[in-house]
Specification:
The protein is an alpha/beta fold. It has 2 domains: about 150 residues, Rossmann fold; about 130 residues, Hypothetical Protein Tm841, Chain: A,domain 3 (2-Layer Sandwich). It has 11 helices and 13 strands. It is globular.
Length: about 290
């Protein structure tokens, strides 16, 4: 019986300590300023990335590279490992389809191997929570098939509530109109969004002011928790270079819910291209996501 491993992409924002401890293979996602592309060997510290955005530079994003996917997957297959890959939402990127294409091609060569690509229908630490859960199942002796089935059921419960500090970047990505962005910015409105059950971004209203927006994230989180929620599961908090706000949100989570294991990380630049500086999100196990 072949052993198996869990892989994911850099949009999962899986912290380095977990990557190292779990020996997780990460498929890079790419971003750019001008003609310089980052994301693989060349990377930019998130703080520097968001500062450049604040100064008016507009980055771009790119999907993963099939050649890089093949190289990383082939190395695992050569070690005799089957692969369960947890991918960034197919509704927000072509990356999932690229991984599926490479997997099909490799399975024609490695006929005894298994590669399953799970569409997380999620983003950022939402993917990471699935990665950590999959590894925990594996450590408890779950088979390849049992882990795949469990994560497919588990993923529907991973909620994402987030807010952004500046509507311009959502407008640039086509999420809100230019008029909405101009009016919202003038009124200091902070929009809320969530990730739907189909992996899309859905607008969920606005509030005025940053502090109010942070408290509203907690209220939205509490409204979507289940009575039978496993509070030993981690909660993810990610931010676009606003660590103080992230720590404040973490304290509110601890004070107002039963969660104590909080993972805080930067929003990867390849996502931050669209979210912008000041973006803040909480990701957690709760009720099945809605449309």
């Amino acid at each position: 019986m072949r052993d198996y491993c869990i892989t994911t992409d850099s949009n999962s924002d899986l912290p380095r300590e977990y990557i190292d401890r779990l020996n997780t293979t990460i498929i890079p996602q790419y971003y750019s300023f001008g003609d310089t592309v980052y994301g693989d060997e060349l990377n930019m510290p998130p703080a520097e990335f968001y500062e450049r955005m604040k100064k008016g530079e507009l980055p771009g994003s790119q999907a993963n590279n099939p050649a890089v996917i093949e190289e990383k997957f082939r190395a695992l297959l050569e070690k005799g490992l089957d692969i369960i890959h947890i991918a960034f939402s197919s509704a927000l990127s072509g990356s999932y389809n690229n991984v599926c294409m490479v997997a099909r091609e490799l399975l024609e060569q490695y006929t005894d191997a298994r590669i399953t690509v799970i569409d997380s229908l999620n983003v950022s630490l939402g993917e990471s929570i699935m990665v950590l859960h999959a590894n925990a199942l594996k450590d408890k002796g779950a088979s390849y098939g049992e882990t795949v089935d469990a994560i497919e059921a588990f993923k529907a419960h991973i909620n994402v509530q987030f807010t952004v500090d500046d509507l311009f970047h959502l407008q640039r990505g086509g999420r809100v109109s230019k008029t909405t962005a101009l009016i919202g910015s003038a009124l200091n409105l902070k929009p809320f969004l969530y990730v739907s059950d189909t992996g899309t971004l859905v607008s969920a209203g606005t509030v005025r002011g940053r502090k109010k927006s942070i408290h509203t994230l907690i209220e939205r989180m509490k409204a979507t928790l289940e009575e039978q929620t496993d509070y030993s599961l981690p909660v993810g908090i990610v931010h676009g270079n606003c660590p103080d706000d992230a720590r404040m949100l973490a304290e509110l989570v601890k004070e107002q819910t039963g969660f104590t294991n909080i993972i805080i990380n930067d929003i990867s630049p390849s996502i931050g291209v669209h979210a912008g500086p000041g973006a803040l999100a909480v990701l957690y196990y709760g009720k099945p996501r809605k449309a």
